[in-house]
Amino acid sequence: MTDTTMQSPANSGAPLRLRGMTQAELEQMTADAGFPAFRGRQLFHWLHRKMARTLDEMKNLPVAFREWLATNAVMGGVKDVVTVKTSQDGSYKFLFELEDGRKVESVLMPDAKRTYWTQCLSSQVGCAVDCKFCVTGFNGFFRQMKVDEIVDQVLFARRHLLTEQPGANFRNLVYMGMGEPLLNPDAVIKSIRLFSDREGVDLSPRRITVSTSGIVPGMVQLAEAETGACLALSLNAPNQAERERIMPITKKYPLADVLDVCRRYRYGKHKRVTFEYVLLAGINDTTDHARQVASLVKGIPCKINVIPFNPNPTLPFGRPETDDVQAFVDVLGAQNYTVSVRWSKALDVDGACGQLAGQHRQRRGIRGVEAPAATPEPTPAQFAHALGDLDFFAPVAAESADEDDGEDIR
Ligand code: SAH
Ligand code: SF4
Known about the structure:
This protein is an alpha/beta fold. The protein folds into 2 domains: 16-74, DNA polymerase, domain 1; 80-402, Alpha-Beta Barrel (TIM Barrel). It contains 14 helices and 14 strands. α5 (147-164) packs parallel to α6 (185-195) and α11 runs parallel beside α12 (322-334). The longest helix has 18 residues, at 147-164. The radius of gyration is 21 Å and the shape is elongated. It starts with 15 loop residues before the first strand and ends in an 8-residue tail after the last helix. The relative contact order is 0.13.
């Protein structure tokens, strides 16, 4: 394997973080340390296939090797799990504490028939992109997540699931939690490779979806990495001017450039981009907006997921009436787009969306659509994302992978 980010004791001064290393890197590390390279492969199996939490669990590794690992490497990943909550709809919410005390959330959800599971991952602590309708954006950016921290969300959650429900079909991943994955592209791409390693978690890359606000260099990097993962673009407005108002990142990466990348590059086996469109009452939800969307994305193999805004008291937006959602969808449907509506589900775990994060968040007041003045650095506790929001994004991944159902209201 040729991996330019290869870690080994020989070429890196940083501590080795085992959960973020590929099998090839672990073998190299093992050989460099004077142990047979196959021990590195066994270590990879323990970490990713058997999801071991400690070196002590790795009984078939010689004590001398485990001692060497304990001295020269760290497992990496999440430090602790503050909360695991189970919802009546079957989903689990995890609040992970990282080694510096920062917190991120992840949600693991079953499909309606409970035949397979989708996990929604965080990729950054906070987010710098500042979309006006997003709680994570409202709170700001703390830091990048490391590869091992991204990966461990899955290792922990999958182990938890399989312990509670042996044989459960852990199938899809979506990078739709906290953060902008394509502003942390190296770590995200490496995590995709680790998740799809046949000797590890062994997920099909076509069941992995990266969602972006439209970071052009990251989109190109993801395409060129040829991971096989799918792309979802958070479109959210049908033209440059209106998108700039709710997603200021559009000034830096104009909508035309973002869509050009969608046209020119291929993501995933089905080569269809998913456009996500959060419907904000009175902002971007008229039938005229829908007509503009239809002509904007014309010619791009795609599907469109319409997401009625999930309200949050800190954000000055509302959810459109069902009739307006229907009218919006009808316009797109009439032009033969594959369009689905993703309704938020009522959550019974700590009430509605964001409640789990809310226990750890301080509010700073209601924000306006115009860019707010610079805000003081938030406390770490503010950054646990309102993952209740994500409960209804999960089927996006299922659909990216499957060309399936969705709650199509047409
Ligand atoms: N940063 C990436 C992935 C995380 S956000 C991105 O923006 O794509 C995942 C999705 O949540 C995005 O499509 C975003 O538009 C949507 N979203 C954010 N806040 C929301 C809210 N309050 N209601 C509905 N969707 C929201
Ligand atoms: Fe960041 Fe995505 Fe939220 Fe925008 S919608 S602020 S990119 S997490």
